[in-house]
Amino acid sequence: MTPSLLDHTPRIAAVGVDGFAAPARAAGADVRQLAWRPPAAGDPALGAKLARLSAHPAVEAANSRALDAIRAVQPLLTDVRPAAEVIPALAGERLLLHAGPPLPYEEMCGPMRAAVTGAVILEGWARDTESAERLARSGGIRFAPCHHHDAVGPMAGIISPSMPLLVVEDAATGRRAYSNLNEGKGRCLRYGALGADVSARLRWMGERLGPSLGAALRARREPLNPRALTAQALLMGDECHSRNTAASALFARELAPDLARQAALGGIEALDFLRDNDYWFLNLSMAASKLAMAAAEGIAHSTVVTTFARNGVRVGIRTAGTGAEWYTAPAAMVEGLYFAGYGPEDANPDIGDSAITETHGLGGFALAAAPAITGFVGGTPALARRVSREMAPDRGPPPRLPPAGPRLRGEPPRHRPPRRRRHGPRTRRHHRHRPPRTGHRPDRRGPHDRPARLLRPGPRRLPGTLVNGGPGPERGPVVAPRARVLADATGPAHALAHGPRRPARVVAATRYAVYLATDHTDLPALAVVRPDAIRTPNAAVLRGPAAPWPAPGTPAAYGEGEIRLGALTVRVGTTPWSAPRVHGLLTAGARADRLAELARVVRARPLDPACATPLRVLRRALREHDDEAVRRAARTLLGRGPGLTPSGDDILCGVLLAAHALGTPAPGIAAEVTAPGAVARTPLVSLALLRHAVRGECVPQAASLLRGLAAPYPLDPDPLLAVGHHSGTDLARGLLAGLTARR
Q1: pLDDT tens figures, 229-277
Q2: Residues 6+ apart with CB under 8 A from 366
Q3: Which of 43, 341, 625, 655 has its CA 20 to 30 A from that of 83?
């Protein structure tokens, strides 16, 4: 008798399609279906490419650099400002930013379309939902992802020009990232809710909450450190994505004294709002995560995921090595809890930029830190610990954050595709929280002792400075190396910086800006400005601190991708930013009450006596549509007054911008400021700004004021009036003259 090969119930591991397991299971076998798929979906060529990519030395080295760059970021919450003031593109056209990868209006999901409608009405571009939807469908509004402008927004993620934004800045480089303010619980624009209650809250946030927060932050002795708050919140049950209760409370406690001192601006109202908003910290967590991940962008060969975002239709990622390119797939349905009477069939697919927290190692990667949230998202604390362990990568310590709780691996760093699995012994690899056995006594302090020490920025040294003494008799003279810093330039400045190398000279230098004389007709002066300076339309904006700061007369040059200012080299990025353009902003006219309010403010400020009579003549000529008289008055005002930008020139800039906003150009003034002889009658710096104004380009504060003249919310002229010693006031005076003369 032949012995049986199977003298017990067989246990079978099935690999492949489910149908393979059915016959064996029907015969009584114990069958376990493995969730395995061939690499690259069975494509041999693609599988071979993935195999070559895995553990490639160039990829490993690039990923190491990317993680170092991410960990080096020192995020600080420095301000809250209107979006148009910190994102130049929002000041120049009807542009709305949204969550996720790029998406045309026609393909947007319902919640995002509704949020667009609410933002259009908020900005005063339409008066009701029907006209707002009609404007969006007609192509009268441009849309772009928040991520394209260093910003993030939860859910629909809509950011419009007047919305206040959190400004998070890297203390090491000066780079910035932004997020809108969290609306709290209930009916919100981010969910696609529309109504008088939603609009009223958004207006209050723009008029009271944003200004009071901004003033409180600017009045502090030092900026608020979101990383320090995150470190504490992880030890208090938050994972800083779906649960932000502890972090929001810590934020309110930290800022409460400063807000209380801003009662006139709405500080007490802001405290009441923060007290009831457990979601508040989410937006700050997102902005800080965006800032950190942006530090890895552009590192060739790196596979670190720098962006993970959803727009309700598609989900997209970007990696450090592939830069701005998106890789997308259909957005998935969310598995979670529903209100009574609702289910998955009522839900929209996944939406929002908030997954940027996961790319930074928070949220789902730190789920073990928040056992209380498991009942909300589904699962158990044990499952949360397992998820955090499985999602933890196989390299590198956390980015200077404490463990997420007792006996947990804690907050892991970023994930990266493709994820490889190591086999065999792990040589020279240490446990995450166990120091290597090198003979010295490990640091036995608890996690509560770490954040203050780890999060405090250490002393930094600018390139080109001497630290260990100067020249000595044996060493000879020490030559400081050329200092280098990155910058982003407007279109015209970008074209000069990336053209042929040309000599230049520094004609003026202030604390915030350096001005070079060029040989270009349309751009006679090129500006290099610090990150916190006014962003003029001829500027290259530095991404961080720079030294040595040049003085007038310093030899300079521009071209071949850089601007040289003595010992300082400014490398100009490959992508230009657009200066605000105001053409057509007021084609429907400005509100009479807003003009009266602006006139009241401007007339209370002094005017250079030398400009008083020419300004009256110019107003009369504009009312009478006498182009020749307009040109004579412009000739009189050109260059009149002291300073780099004389008062007469600022007034002419305002008139030119008002004409563009109304859609009625002023050819007399344009002809005068573009005439060849103008270069001898006014400083080059001022002449460059005048020629930008001829094209409708200006500083963000001027564009913001023009939009406010047609908006339903109160006018805020202070940002423009604060520009320069007198420039902002004279620019507003010119805007008022140009707008009232054509009524």
Answers
A1: 999 999 899 999 999 999 999 999 999 999 999 999 999 999 999 998 9
A2: 234, 239, 240, 388, 404, 410, 411, 412
A3: 655
* Alpha carbon distance 67, 63 (integer Å): 6
| Omega before residue 447 within 30° of 0, cis | no
461-503 pLDDT, tens digit per residue, is 333 333 333 333 333 333 344 577 888 888 889 889 999 999 9
CA dihedral 716, 720, 724, 730 (to 10 degrees): -110
Cα angle 391, 395, 398; round to 5 = 75
Q: Are 579 and 657 in contact (CB under 8 A)?
A: no
The tens digit of pLDDT for each residue in 91-120 reads 878 999 999 999 999 999 999 999 999 999
For 719, the token pair is: 């940002």
Where is pLDDT greater, at 573 or 199? Answer: 199
What is the spatial distance between Cα 419 and Cα 79, in angstroms, rounded to a whole number?
38
Give percent above pLDDT 70 in the chain. Answer: 84
Three-state DSSP at 343 gives: coil
- The predicted structure's pLDDT at residue 340: 73
Closest to 662 in 3D by CA, of 732, 738, 581, 599:
738
Beta strands at 568-572 and 176-180: parallel, antiparallel or unpaired: unpaired
Kind of pairing between the strands at 305-311 and 351-352: antiparallel
pTM, full prediction: 0.57
CA distances from 63 to 172, 326, 500, 528, 683 (A): 21, 19, 35, 33, 49
Distance CA 282, CA 290 (A): 12
Q: In terms of DSSP H, where are the helices of 261-330?
A: 267-275, 280-294
Which is more confidently placed, 278 or 452? 278
How many Å apart are CA 184 and CA 171, to the nearest integer?
Answer: 29
Supply the pLDDT for residue 687: 93
Contact 200, 118 (CB under 8 A): no
State how far the alpha carbon of 383 is from the alpha carbons of 379, 398, 604, 714, in Å. 6, 21, 66, 51
| Residue whose tokens read 């604060």 | 722
What DSSP element (H or E) covers 92? Answer: helix 88-92
Query: Of 633, 628, 631, which is closest to residue 616 (Cα–Cα)?
Result: 633
* Of 198, 160, 203, nearest in space to 178 by CA: 160
Residue 608, classed as helix, strand or coil, is coil
Task: Please state at what angle helix 226-234 crosses helix 280-294, rounded to 10 degrees.
Answer: 110
Of the candidates 232, 220, 287, 227, the one whose C-alpha atom is nearest the C-alpha of residue 259 is 220
CB atoms closer than 10 angstroms to residue 378 = 11
Longest dimension (CA), the chain: 123
> Of 541, 565, 558, 557, whose CA–CA distance to 484 is shortest?
565
Distance CA 84, CA 270 (A): 22
Question: Looking at residue 319, what is its pLDDT?
Answer: 95
Enter the tokens of residue 504: 């230049």
Q: Which two tokens stand for residue 338?
A: 């529903």
Distance CA 535, CA 529 (A): 7
Q: Are 490 and 700 in contact (CB under 8 A)?
A: no
Residue indicated by tokens 């395995």: 36
